[in-house]
Amino acid sequence: MANIGTIVDSEATLPISKAARLIEANIQSDSKFPSIADLLHASSSAEYEQAIPSDRQVVTQQRLIPLPDALFEQYDLLECRCFMGLFPEIKRAWITVDHRLFLWNYEEESEFYSFEDQEQIIVSVALVRPKPGVFVDTIRHVLVVATPLEVFLLGVGYEQAKVSGARGSGGGELALYATQISVPADGVAMTSIVGTADGRVFMSGNDGALYEFVYQSEDGWLTKKAKKINLTSTLASYFVPTFLGARRDTPALSMAVDDQRKLLYVVMQDSSIKVFWLGAQGDEFVLAHHHRTIANSAALLCPQFNEGTDVAPFEIASIHVIPPAEARTLNLVVVTSGGCRLYFSTVKRMQRFYETSAVSASSPPPTRPEVFEIVHVRLPPETQPTLARAMQGRVPRQMLKVHTAYYHNGTSLLAHTWNEDHDSIVGAAPACAQILARVARQPRTTLAENSSTTRIEGRTWAIAEVGSPDGQGLNDMVTAASMPTRTFAVLTNVGVTILEKQRPVDMLRALITRPALQEAQLKEFVNLYGLDETCAMCYTILCASEYSQAALGMQVANAARRILFEYGGVPHFVETPAFGTALAADASAGAVGNAGSGISASSERIALSGRHNGLGIYLARTLQPIWSQLATVAKASERGNSSRLHIGIAIASLVDVQDRLRRLQHFINNNQRFIPNQMNQMPLQPASSARSTVDVTSCWNAEAISLAALYELMSHAVEAISFLCLMSDFNLPVVSESMPEAQRQKLAGIQFSQLICSDAGKQSCRDLILALVNTQIKQNMGIDSISDVLSRRCSTMFSSSDVSLYKALETLKQASESEEGTEARDLASGALNLLTDIAGTLSIEQLCEICSSFEALGQLNAIITLALACAAQSDPHGDAYKFWGDGAPDNDPREAIYNKRMDCYRCIIGVMERHRSSVLNADSLSKLPGTDVLFHFSLYDWLLENDQSSLLFQIRSAHVEQYLNLEPRTLEKCDMLWHYYVHESRFGNAAVVQRQMACAQDFGVDLAGRIEYLSLSISNAKIAIDMVRGGQMRLAGEISEEEQINELAMILRDNEDQLEVAQVQLEIQQQLRNQGGHEMLAAELDRRLFTVTELFEKFAEPMRMWDAVLLIFKASNHDDPQMVEGVWHTILRTVLDDQQRTGLLAVASKVAQLGSRLYPSPAAFPLTTVARILLDLAQERPSEYTSGYVSDTLLHAGVPYWAVFEALNTLYTKAVPTAGSRNSMGKNVRSGANANITVMIAREVAALASRWMEFSKGSGVSSITDPLDIGAVENGASGNSMPVMDVDRALSQYIVNATLHENVDLKNELQRVQENIRHQAL
Questions:
Q1: pLDDT single digits (tens) 1127-1149
Q2: 122 in helix, strand or coil?
Q3: I want to staple 418 with a disulfide (CB 3.0 to 4.6 A). Which of 377, 422, 630, 671 is the partner?
Q4: CA angle, 529 then 535 then 538, to 5°
Q5: Who has greater pLDDT, 1138 or 1033?
Q6: Under DSSP, is residue 1141 helix (H, G, I), strand (E, B) or coil?
Q7: Is residue 1212 a contact partner of residue 1292, using CB atoms and an 8 Å limit?
Q8: How wide is the angle at C-alpha 100 spanned by C-alphas 94 and 103, nearest 5°?
């Protein structure tokens, strides 16, 4: 049951996948921004863009929070020393006045916490991480307080404020706890204290030594609860008396810890730096390097470094660690008192050259550094405008007077002494637009920075970044959508000045905040950052939090909206791509840092608008924090025998991204013209002469499709986040325990992007919901709440049909576990009702699994019902049947619907295959639903494939006849069709099908088979005629009985004519085979039925098949006496001349053979002509001739007596006038040949009459006494009758002629025959 929740939703894959590719392209484009190490590949640099306009400052002063009056009052009580600094982790400023410690919540302005529980002067304070396992969980920080006598620890309990205020997020709740952990200072003043991430605490003393504060929760047997270890002293120093004045090491000024690389950097008073290796596990302390010649090394890299050192010697103002996320080959930034930044590296030169600047997913383990050297010198920005310096000529670069500084993620803030009462904060940050412009021209470029100067009141003691600086990249355009503005706190003796870093979006916001938007300034801004990026910034402004929008006011929102819709450009065909695009020109094809392409099919030719591309950029940057993260991860369970699934992304991150996406959705929904679907919805540029209106329309269509796809992806992302939050609320680890281990491992590899854009991701969601439903049901809890939440929050990912599916699956599971048959059937019926309503949403995989469950319960009818419902609901418009009816064209979108219906039918047929004994019978098959035509056709195909064709005749379904008539028609189906018609007593339809089978050329029927089908067709046509006449059958349609009979009679006549020709064709084929060597011709005659003309011209005449020619003449009723006579002469002459035959007897046999097939066809068997030829041949062979030869031959050929008599008498009549002629004396002159023929004919007639009299005596055939009526004979008179009167008259004439010719023998013979006839017949 676990695999039943498989749904493959392929409909939304295409647009979603294209939108996802655009998001991927934009994220990839943003990731290509060079790292700080790539930009500092040269030895030195000093390129700055000074911010002349006030809205282009690197940092801007937001407000000054003055020191509370109570603190000033404490300052007035100062007796010895006062120190101050910032603890950004707890949003506090710390101030020491002699022995008192104050923690000021500058967010709340006047709130501060004081600690006065000790009397020693505080010389140093630091906030460090606690050592694991020592304090309770509420203590997340430890305050290290150093006095000359002791160093002690205070536990810090800090709770972040949850409600944002007008001036920030509030300072949160703070509490200090005494820990009773301290170590003696032994009179050493600790000048600097730092802590590592794992709880080690390092201190630098004014005695030049470095110490470690080691502590634990309790005293041990041999160890104290806390102790101070001198890390830099040698063993000998313990034995040298202090009065001997042993040389002290140079004291340290400050320290910094690199937790990831396990390094400790220490700045000495002589401006040297020591690097200590803390070990791969963080439990060592080894001096790795000591760089003593920093100034000289910097001067070698940059000669300008020494400018101004004659006024102020080289000093180090501060050091700052560069984490590997910012640059893997750079470790440390040293800010000098002159404002220079020195970049150090612990990576060898060649390794730096080949080392990639990208940060891998898993950083390599830290190793002890082999080198520590300066790799780049960054000179300070100019303090005077460039124009003023140009007017002064070539003067040395003026160095700054820096006494403290801050650096992180490319941004540096230098506290420069302006005068005694004021400092200047000199800010510098990468100039993203210029850098990207250079990268577009050449991949390897140098660092360019924007710089500005902000004057503040008081002398700066510390600078810190408020909030977490992690995640902030060099490219401010990328992080603007997902990260808050970077805020810095500058602590002076006056108060805390809050500075905010100006990102490009902040500069645009400041620009449009002005009462009147200056188009020239906006144009300059667009030229600098590109139209796409400008539009992306507008989305950032419009989709800001409600508080931010309220603070900005409607003017800013309206101005940003106006830029999008009026200046956002239009989609157009690309002609000359260029970097950056002026506002007055067309929208560019791609902007700075943009993927620069739409997602439509024609995007290679069409450049979409900046409004579209800006949306893609903003959406990508909003989704980037979670896009590639694993949505769920597998972690070992507490029992350790299996894994459990957990949400792989922090819920806070998910909610933050979802809030931004919802605000974007809200903006788009409230601006209906955002996605254009009509040409007049957006401002159009007039079509040029080279571009038609159709081209403009295609551009807008491409933009509309792409925007819709991005909106769909955004909606899916919002719902996917809701789904993950839902699974978190329902305790995903517990829910996942019921899932198979293999399935858990599969789900653990799904990224968030796959969750919303791939079938595998959607499958994962449904698997998790199915597991959740199963868990709820096992706990006897309803799933209505889950259904409601899914319907409200994830309407496109889940619907009520999904919940119905889950309910049905659980019901099936309960049915399978039920031991009572009635209960199991009821449960199965309930599940079927649920599933039938949502059958159209089931995938084939789900359907097959569900059918397997029903099959296990013995519910075969449920399988048929569900599968047919799934097929019908998946195709509500009948597209599958139309697709099938159109011949299944290629690349037709209806093919997918057709294939799903076929898969549904296979589920049913598969069950039938496994249960043949119970379903393969007429009763079961006749009960199948009859509305699904395609199902019946699939079922009939299966029956034929399994030799169950007999069942088709027993199924009382109207679809059987339709199925058997389907194209392509096969011999098997046609054979079944006419049998079906016979079974239904529809003989006329059977006759038509049989004739079609006989005439078909693609069934592979041989000639004998064709003749058989024609014979059957003739028989069925005759039966149909008889049944119509008897009122037992009617043809389809409203036609009369007479019309039915005429139609059937026409079919009968056509069949008979075709059968006659087919028999001739068979005759020719047999002769070809008998002759041998004509196999190809004989085989050709099997392929189809030929016409008589084709048979004559292609076969009979060329092959001299004279018998076949006569048959062709008979079939065609061809009337050509001369040709027929010639054929008969050829046939009979050939037989007579054949030495192997018996002369006239062979001729008689041949005539009898042909006559039996040809007579009474006058075209093929002209009786008079045949008789004359026989007489001629008999005259040639008098020795073989006997009286009656001709008549007997014709009688054996099937010619009746009367017809033979008529033929002979006709020949006699034609021969008598030419029997003789008169001479000059008027006497008859006899011709020997003609006299012989008349005598032969007379004797043939006499022999015929004698034969007839003998035949009539035995058979009782009556004579015809009236003159011969041929029509009467043909219409019913006996073929063996004789016209006696005509014979008598003919004999009388023959006797007269014999008397005239003095042929006594003939006369006597004729008189004898005449007397017999008269005696017998007359």
A1: 999 999 988 888 788 889 999 99
A2: coil
A3: 422
A4: 110
A5: 1138
A6: coil
A7: no
A8: 25
pLDDT tens, position by position, 290-314: 999 999 999 999 988 887 555 568 8
Average pLDDT value for the chain = 82
Beta bridge partner(s), residue 417: 423
What is the pLDDT averaged over residues 950-968? 81
How far apart are alpha carbons 620 and 599 in whole angstroms?
Answer: 14
Would you say the C-alpha torsion 731, 733, 739, 742 has a positive or negative sign? positive
Arithmetic mean of pLDDT, 1177-1194? 91
- Closest CA relative to residue 999, chosen from 990, 1009, 989: 1009
Q: Which residue has the tokens 């079944």?
A: 976
Whether the Cβ atoms of residue 825 and residue 859 lie closer than 8 Å to each other: yes
Spatial separation of the C-alpha atoms in residues 916 and 454, rounded to whole Å:
90
Residue carrying the six token digits 């929070």: 65
Task: Report the helix count and the strand count for the chain, using DSSP H and E.
Answer: 48, 36
Distance CA 811, CA 826 (A): 10
Amino acid at 571: P
Pairing of strands 449-457, 48-50: parallel
Give the tokens for residue 109. 């302005």
Give the DSSP H or E segment for 252.
strand 252-258
CA distances from 1174 to 82, 237, 944, 1185 (A): 156, 157, 60, 10
Question: Pairing mode, if any, of strands 44-45 and 373-378?
Answer: parallel
Distance CA 1093, CA 1113 (A): 10
Cα–Cα distances in angstroms (integers) from residue 365 to residues 261, 345, 362, in the given order: 8, 17, 9
User: In Å, how far from its chain's centre is CA 598?
Assistant: 19
Kindly report which listed range (336-340, 713-717, 1104-1108) carries the lowest average pLDDT score.
1104-1108
pTM equals 0.65
Count of CB atoms within 10 A of residue 183's CB?
Answer: 23
Q: Torsion-angle region of residue 596: left (phi > 0), alpha (psi -120 to 50) or beta?
A: left
Of the given ranges (104-108, 703-707, 740-744, 941-945), which has the lowest mean pLDDT?
740-744
Taking the C-alpha atoms of residue 455 and residue 477, their distance in angstroms, rounded to an integer, is 26
- Residue identified by tokens 């992690």 is 470
Closest C-alpha among 879, 876, 877 to residue 898: 879
Residues in a beta bridge with 428: 412, 451
The structure tokens 């404490």 sit at 74
**Sole residue written with tokens 């802590």:** 195
Question: Which carries the bigger pLDDT value, residue 685 or residue 336?
Answer: 336
Query: Between 519-529 and 554-567, two packed helices, what is the crossing angle to 10 degrees?
Result: 70
pLDDT digits 0-9 by tens, 1254-1289: 888 765 545 554 444 444 444 444 557 889 899 999
Residue type, 354: Y
DSSP lists the bridge partners of residue 115 as 101
pLDDT of residue 274: 95
SS (H, E, C) 188-251: CCEEEEEECCCCCEEEEECCCCEEEEEECCCCCCCCCCEEEEECCCCCHHHHCCHHHCCCCCCC
Token pair of 78 as six digits? 């100062």
Examine residue 1160 and say whether the peptide bond preceding it is cis (omega within 30 degrees of 0): yes
Q: What is the DSSP letter of 407?
A: E
Using pLDDT thresholds of 50, 70 and 90, give the confidence band for residue 247: low
Residue 758 pLDDT grade (very low, low, confident, very high; cuts 50, 70, 90): confident
Element (H, E) at 344: strand 341-345
Count of beta carbons in the 10 Å neighbourhood of residue 738: 13
Q: CB neighbours (10 Å) of residue 190?
A: 26
pLDDT tens column, 15-53: 788 899 999 999 998 888 888 988 998 899 999 888 766
Torsion, Cα 294 296 298 302, to 10 degrees, reads 170
Q: What is the pLDDT of residue 241?
A: 53
Residue 317 CB neighbours (<10 A): 22
Work out the number of other CB atoms within 10 angstroms of the CB of residue 931: 9
Beta bridge partners of 95: 84, 102
